[in-house]
Structures are given as structure tokens and as C-alpha cells.
Amino acid sequence: MRLFGLIGFPLSHSFSKGFFADKFSKENITGCVYENFPIPAIEEFPGLWRQYEELEGLNVTIPYKQAVIPYLDELSDAAKAIGAVNCIRRKNGKLTGNNTDVTGFSRSLQPLLQPHHTKALILGTGGAAKAVKYSLAQMGIQYTEVSRSGPVPYEALTETIIREHTLIVNTTPLGMYPNEIDAPPIPYEFTGAQHLYYDLIYNPAETQFMKNGAAQGAAVKNGHEMLVLQAEASWEIWNA
């Protein structure tokens, strides 16, 4: 049996376990199991691999995306640059950390890009923003970071800045269930049909940020496909 799983704490709701159970069933993948491993301290991480010799790969979620790094033997270029790991593979006794958020975001965004999407605003400066920055840099898209505390604060966003930056990516939790009426405080009235709004949030399916953009004629996208594609990227890594 091949064993895969998810570490984090707590793990009250896991997209990953449901996703892989569904995938194994639909694609008739036999001999594979995906389990949740809610470990209350990262110090329990090495024991997990000793306890389950059949364990081949793990996904990593809050709060261990950074804390797990010292326990790994190698990091992919993306994981190294971002400083966060969400996918681990064990091969030949070595643990390698990867960041599939980059792959998920890139593969989800690319089909939506138009030639004029050359500059982006990234709303938020947390861990998710780092993966977005890495992805955009790989695609040759210039970006400016916006947050309450800078580098560019929300109140500094002028009409000129908004019109120049036709891709706007929300990496903040503003608008996430149950606070669905919240939205990043940008001047939405300066956006139009040339803009693309991408929200990493997927619950609700249409955030207030997306509604505000759509009302101005912008194209909008939520983060559900990114979530699916980053999970698929983990499966690719575990089977490479």
C-alpha cells in the first residue's frame, strides 16, 4: 500500500483528503490511501515517517509550512525562494520539500492572461503572496505589493496606478466565509473590462472583491481551480 497524507493542526476540514479519495475512486487508482495527520507540534514530524514506513508523501498546511523546512533534506527552487513548503516527497530515504501553490496558481492564471496583463497588484504580503510573486516573476509579469502597512498602502492607490495594473490578485483573507461582505479597500471604480481580478479565496465562490470587479466589467476568477491544480501537482511530484 502507498500512503500519502496531510499534516497541520488542527485539521478540522481537509480539502486534500476528500480530493484524493475522490481522485483514487474516479481514476481507479488502487493501493493508495490518503490520511489526515493532525500533529499538535512539529517535533512529531520525524516520528511520523518512522511510524509509517509506507508513507511516500505529505501535504503541509498551517501552521507548519515554514516550520517543517529544517526537517527536510532538500528543497525545490520554488520552495527555497518562497521559504514555504506544502508538499513533501520521500524517495530513497530523502525528504524533499516543494511548493505546489506556485504550480496551481500559474496553471490557473495562464489561460486567462491577455497581452495587456503585464503589470499586477498583489493585495497582501503573507505566505500566499510569496507564491504569487514567484509565479508572476516566472511569467515575466511585473508586480507591486499592496497592504495596510505597505510597501504600497491601500490609500496610495491612484487612478493611474489602477489603470496601469490590469491584473489584481487578492491574497488576503478579506471576504472569506463567514465575513463575506468584506473586500480589500481598493478604488474599484477605476477598473474596467481590461482588468482581471483573481481571488485566492474559494469560499464563497464569488467574493465581494470579485463582485466589485465584475460590476466594473472586469474578468474574475476564484481560487478553487488553483487548489485543485496544486493538489494535482503534488500527485505529479509523488509519482515522478
From TrEMBL:
<keyword id="KW-0028">Amino-acid biosynthesis</keyword>
<dbReference type="InterPro" id="IPR046346">
    <property type="entry name" value="Aminoacid_DH-like_N_sf"/>
</dbReference>
<dbReference type="InterPro" id="IPR013708">
    <property type="entry name" value="Shikimate_DH-bd_N"/>
</dbReference>
<dbReference type="Pfam" id="PF08501">
    <property type="entry name" value="Shikimate_dh_N"/>
</dbReference>
<dbReference type="InterPro" id="IPR036291">
    <property type="entry name" value="NAD(P)-bd_dom_sf"/>
</dbReference>
<protein>
    <submittedName>
        <fullName>Shikimate dehydrogenase</fullName>
    </submittedName>
</protein>
<comment type="pathway">
    <text>Metabolic intermediate biosynthesis; chorismate biosynthesis; chorismate from D-erythrose 4-phosphate and phosphoenolpyruvate: step 4/7.</text>
</comment>
<dbReference type="InterPro" id="IPR022893">
    <property type="entry name" value="Shikimate_DH_fam"/>
</dbReference>
<keyword id="KW-0560">Oxidoreductase</keyword>
<feature type="domain" description="Shikimate dehydrogenase substrate binding N-terminal">
    <location>
        <begin position="6"/>
        <end position="88"/>
    </location>
</feature>
<keyword id="KW-0057">Aromatic amino acid biosynthesis</keyword>
